[in-house]
Amino acid sequence: MPQPDHRGVEHRRDIEALVAQLSVAEKARLTAGEDFWSTAAVERLGIPKVGLTDGPNGARGPHLPGSAPPSVCLPCGSAIGATWDPDLAAEVAALLAREARQRGCRVLLAPTVNLHRSPLAGRNFECYSEDPLLAGRLAAAFVRGALAEGVIATVKHLVGNESEHERASISSVIDPRSLRELYLLPFEIAVRDGGALALMTAYNRLNGRWLSEQAGILHDIVRGDWGFAGLIMTDWFAVADTVVSATAGLDLEMPGPGRAFGPALAAAVAEGTVPEEALDAMVGRLLRTFDRVGVLDEPTPPDRPGPDRPDDRDLARRAAAAATVLLRNDGLLPLAAAELTTLAVLGPNADTARIGGGGSAAVTPHYRTTPLDALRAALADCSIVHQRGCDIDRAPRPLGAPGLACDGFEVEIFAGAAWEGPVVHRRHLPEMRFFFFDPPAADLPAEGWSLRARATVVARESGRHRFALTQCGRARVLVDGAVLLDGVTHPPPPGGTDFYGLASEELEAELDLVAGSPVDVVVEFRTHPGELAALRVGFRLPDVDDLLERAVDAAAAADVCLVVVGTSDEWETETRNRTSWELPGRQAELVRRAAAANPRTIVIVNAGAAVDLSCAEEAAAVLQCWFGGQEMASALADVVTGAAEPGGRLPMTVPHRFEHHPSHDNFPGENGELRYGEGLFMGYRGFDHRRLPVRFAFGHGLGYTSFLLEAPELSSSTFRRGDHLEVAVPVRNTGDRRGAEVVQCYVAPDAARLARPPKELKAFAKVTLDPGQRTVVRLELDDRSFSYWDPGQPDWESLEPRLAALFGVERLPPAERREPGWQLDAGTYQICVGRSAGDLAHRVAVEVLAPPDHHG
What we know:
- The structure is a single chain.
- By secondary structure, this protein is α/β, with parallel strands linked by helices.
- The protein has 4 domains: 11-297, Glycoside hydrolase, family 3, N-terminal domain (TIM Barrel); 324-391 and 541-644, 3-Layer(aba) Sandwich (Rossmann fold), CATH 3.40.50.1700; 394-540, Jelly Rolls (Sandwich); 707-787 and 824-848, Immunoglobulins (Immunoglobulin-like).
- It is built from 20 helices and 41 strands.
- The strands form 9 sheets. Strands 14, 15, 16, 17, 18, 19, 20, 21, 22, 23 and 24 form an 11-stranded antiparallel β-sheet that branches. A 6-stranded mixed β-sheet has the order 11-27-26-25-12-13, sandwiched between helices. A 5-stranded parallel β-sheet has the order 3-4-5-7-10.
- The two termini are 53 Å apart.
C-alpha cells in the first residue's frame, strides 16, 4: 500500500522493502551517476535510470551547450527576478518541466538562488536577486510549478557560490548570522514553502570545508532544522569524500562514473569505514525522491524534443515584457509610432540576439530575433537606420552569427576518423560551435568518429575578415575549396578559455570578403585520443575607423535614437567573473555622444546583471531588458511601442559608483578565500546602513500609468510570537491605461540588541489593474519577519570564570548571552510600504510584545 511521508504525500512504492532487496554493490551504484546526464539503474528491481537536465532558462536535455537540439529559451534568472511575480515563475517552471520530460529527463537542474552579492559575479544572470526573500519566494514557486508537471526541481548551489573565481577550491568565509539570514534563506524558503525535493551542493568550500563534506549544513540545518527529506547531489565533478560525504548527508555524486561514491563507497562499506545503514539512508532518500513524482513506476522516457509551440512563444514573450524595467522616462516612451518618421537604432547588441548568458545555462533556441529586426517589424512605416557604433566581442563570434550569416550548417557524421564511408548520422547546427562529452549518437565509437559541415555564408560588410578556430580534437576550415585554417596538420597548443578552459588556443587567418557575395564554407572535424569533442569556428568583422562617428551622425539625423548596449554570454558566463562594472568596449562613449546629438535618445540595457549607467544620465529614457530569451526582441518592441507594459522592478541595486558597493573590498577573493566582509550589510541593506545614495534603488521600476498606494492598515497594533500580522494596502490605478504595480513591505526595527540592517524586505505582491480600478493588497508578516539569527557565544562559559578570577570576584556583572537560534526581540518596529527600497510612501508602527514569562 502507498505510504505517506512526513508531509502527508503518498509514496507509490515501499521504499524500505525495495532497499532491502538491493545488494551493497547495487546500492552503492545508485549513489553515483551512470553517465553524464543520468542516474544508475537496477533493472532486476525495476529501478530505471533517471535523466537530469540543465537548466534555469531552458531544458537542454542530455546534451552539453552547443550540441543540443533546439528548445525554448526563456528569460534568464535575473529577468525572472525582475518580474517580482511568483505565479509567472511557476508558469516558466512548468514549461521547462514539460520540455525536460520531452527530452527524457525528470530532474531539472534549476533554479539558481545564489545572491547578487557583487555585480561582477559571472553567474548573476542565472540568479534571481540580491534579496533572499525575493529569491526564495520565486524559487518556491518555481519548484511548485515543476512538481505540478512531475519534474523535480534542483535548487542550487548550496551555499556561498557568489563568485566564479577559483570556484572549485575557494573558501567562502561567511559569519553565522549572514549565512542564516541571507545566503541560506532562499534555500530554506524553497524547501519549507516550495516543497523542494532536490538540492545541489556548490563547488566552493564554506569556511574552509567543501559543502559536500559538511554535516553541519547538510544534516543539521538542511535535514534537521528545515525537515528536508529529499535528495542532495553534488555539482558536476565537485569534490566529495567517500567516508565523510556519505555520513554528512550527501546522496548522489554527479556525473558518473563515480569517484568518491559508486564502487569506492561499496568498498568503504565492506571495510567498515561507512556503516551500511548510512548507505541505506542515502539510497532510501534518492528512491523516495524519485517515487514522489512517479519515476519508479515509469520506464525511462525517450529523448524526443517537441516542436516550437505558439503557446510557449506567448509565455516567453509575456515573461520578457514582465521583466523589462523602465528605469527612467521623460515621457518619450512609449513611442508615438504614427508620429515617427526616422529611427536610428545603434549599438553592438542591436543586430545581435544576446538572449542568454554563458556556461551550463546555455541552450540552442528555436530561433533568434534581433532587436533591430523586431523594431523593423513593429514600426514598418518608419525609416530605420542601423549603425553598430562599436564592437564588444571578447572572442570571434561563431560562423552563422550576424555579420557572416547563413541558414545554418548541414552536418554529416561518419563512424570513422577520416570523413570516409557512409554517413551514419545527420544534424543541423545554426552556428559553427559544438561540444560533445559523449559521441553525438549512441552507436558511434567514443573515439574515432568525424564530421563534415557545410554552409553558404554571406558577408554583411566588405573588407578583411579575421577567422579563428579553437578545438578539442582536430579540425580544418575550407572556404570555396581552399584550406583557410588547418588545425589537423598544425594543431594549436592547449590553453584556450572556451569549453570550460579545455579548448586549444585560437588558430587565426584573414580573408577578404565582399558584402552580399556568398562563399561556401566546409568544416571538417575528427576526434583525438584523450580529448573531448568541441569546436568553435569564429570571425571578426573588418576594422572600421569611423564606426562611432557614423553612429553619432545617424543619431543626429533621426527623430528618435535608440541605443542597445550591454554584455553577452562571453562577458557574463559560468567559470569566470566580469573584471569591470563598465559596459564593454566604447559603449559608454556611444551612449553619451548619441544623447548629446539627439535629446530624444532611449538606452536599452541588454545585460543580465547591473552595469555602470552613468553614461545614460542625459538619455530621455532607459530600459533594462536583461537576457530575455528567444522572445526578448519582440517583447522589447512591444514595450517600446506601448503594446505591452514594462512590468519589471529591479531585483538588485544600481549604485552611482562601483566602489560604493558593499562587497567592493572583498571580491573576488584572494589566496584561496573569499571573505564576505560586509556581513549582513549586503546589497540595499549596505547602502542603507552607510546612507549612500544610489542611482536606482532595489525594487525600482516605472510604468506607463500611475498608481496611488494609500495608507496601510494593520490587523493589530501589537504582535506576539506565533501571531500573523496582516498589512492591508489599498492600491489604485490613477492613470489612463492598464498596468502593474509591486507593493513592497519592509520591516525596520527602531532599536536592536545586535547589529541589524536599517530595513529588510519581508513581503511583496504584484497587482495588475485597469484605469481607475482599486484593490486592497493583503500582505502577511510572521515571527521571522521581525527576527534575527543570534549565533550566541559558545566560548562564554569557559571565558567567564577566568575573567572573574583575574579580577578577584566570584562572578562578572551580568552579560546577556543566548543560545544560538532565531530571536524575536520586544520593541517597536516600523512597517514601511512603498514602491522600492528608496521610495517608501508609508510607515506604520507595530509593537512586538515580550512573551508572558519574559523577565529581561
